[in-house]
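Table S2 (continued). Query chain:
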Amino acid sequence: MCAGARLAYDGRGNAVVQSREELEGAVEQLGGYGQGLYAERWAPFVKVTSAAALSILVLTTKNAATSISMLPAMFASRTAES
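Corresponding output:
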């Protein structure tokens, strides 16, 4: 998945990329490399038959000097009651 750093949610501001050949078209669709794009990777999940849900969030940051930092992965789970 190629996504914009801003407003990339609910299917907006992102494009599915399944090969290197599709990358340039996705970048163009999202306004070019200057728009602050990032890549997401699909994670294989096994369908859970309970009412629990799991979210995994990994954040990277970049400052004005283009120093990139990755924050630790955060996991959140909830049940139908929460």
